[in-house]
Design brief:
The protein has about 70 residues and is mostly helical. The chain is built from 2 helices and 2 strands; from the N terminus they run αββα. About 55% of the residues lie in helices and about 10% in strands. Helix 1 runs antiparallel to helix 2. The chain is elongated and about 35 Å long.
Length: about 70
């Protein structure tokens, strides 16, 4: 159970960070889907993180920690 939660958390973290790298490999049109709600954007180190990206990163980190502890 713990390994599965940790793996799912890692997958969510990767999906949350993926829009930062997609324009570099020519898939910039898909990044727009992460900014659809456009309610909140946080700029960290010059990169804009949308609310969906922040939710995926936060939930992924929580699940990774819970999975590692179990």
């Amino acid at each position: 159970m713990g390994k599965g939660l940790a793996l799912f958390g890692l997958i969510l973290i990767i999906i949350g960070i993926l829009p930062l790298f997609m324009p570099m490999i020519g898939l910039g049109t898909f990044v727009d889907y992460f900014y659809m709600l456009n309610i909140y954007t946080l700029s960290i180190a010059g990169y804009d993180f949308s609310e969906l990206m922040l939710i995926l990163l936060g939930l992924g980190v929580i699940l990774l920690i819970v999975g590692a502890v179990r």
